[in-house]
Design brief:
Elements (H helix, E strand, L loop, with lengths): L2 E5 L4 H12 L3 E6 L10 E5 L5 H15 L4 E4 L15 H24 L7 E6 L12 H20 L5 E8 L12 H5 L9 H12 L10 E4 L12
Parallel strand pairs: 1-2, 1-4, 2-3, 4-5, 5-6, 6-7
Helix pairs in contact: 1-6, 2-3, 3-4
């Protein structure tokens, strides 16, 4: 039995990840601060706040004691819709985003590593964002947190050499979760791939990176954005 822990699993991309891994017969643990439920018998929901080291520790401890070794960790949980002018954002607000998105992911990695026997197969996938290197005004906190996630991925890959654990990141671009049918032709055509992204695009990549045979992919940051970061955009 392969066990996957997915943070931010209650909604959005995280929920799709939980469903996708469950379909591949993983025993899935969706962790989130938002209450939810799943009808699938192999998806278990645990309420957890990524800002709390104690809650994260207790959650991982409960999973390993009751179900055994965790094979996959996907750090998807994040404050993702926060943007505020640099002239207005408070230090507390900045700290809250970094604490949730970056510190929370780091603690989850620590807990995951601690329960792995040395040499045992393991996969960490950190969900970053194309905003780690391309951004808009007002996204300083979110962008900094995702830049940190990419850097954390790079460092962990080296630190975990010869352990059996690979560490990779995925940086999604525009992934429409809520209402794909409402998108316009212009929305789609601005992407070199001809369409806006879907959650399944991220699920497919995560499943690929987590396959046991794909252990030579390590320290990568896979950008999934339909080619948008390769496109020069100037105001007409």
């Amino acid at each position: 039995m392969k066990i996957a822990v997915i943070t931010g699993g209650a909604s959005g991309i995280g929920r799709h990840l939980a469903l996708g891994f469950a379909k591949e017969e993983y025993e899935v643990f969706a962790l989130d601060i938002i209450d939810t439920s799943f009808s699938e018998k192999n998806i278990h929901f645990y309420k957890m706040d990524l800002r709390s080291e104690t809650e994260i520790h207790q959650c991982f401890k409960k999973i390993t004691e009751e179900y055994g070794e965790i094979s996959v960790l996907i750090n998807n949980g994040a404050i993702s819709k926060f943007n505020k002018s640099v002239y207005e954002i408070s230090v507390k607000e900045f700290d809250d985003v970094l604490t949730t998105n970056l510190r929370g992911a780091f603690i989850c990695c620590k807990e995951f590593i601690a329960q792995k026997p040395r040499g045992s197969y393991g996969r960490i996938v950190n969900i970053a964002s194309t905003r780690f290197h391309q951004n808009e005004a007002g996204w300083e906190a979110y962008g900094a947190s995702k830049g940190g996630i990419v850097s954390l991925t790079n460092s962990l890959c080296v630190s975990l050499s010869n352990t059996g654990i690979t560490v990779n990141a995925i940086s999604p671009g525009w992934i429409e979760v809520d209402d794909y049918d409402s998108l316009t032709e212009r929305d789609h055509k601005q992407h070199p791939s001809g369409r806006v992204g879907k959650p399944q695009d991220i699920v497919n990549a995560c499943l690929f990176l987590c396959r046991e045979e794909n252990d030579f992919i390590n320290g990568a940051n896979l950008i999934i954005d339909g080619g948008m970061t390769k496109k020069m955009i100037y105001e007409e």
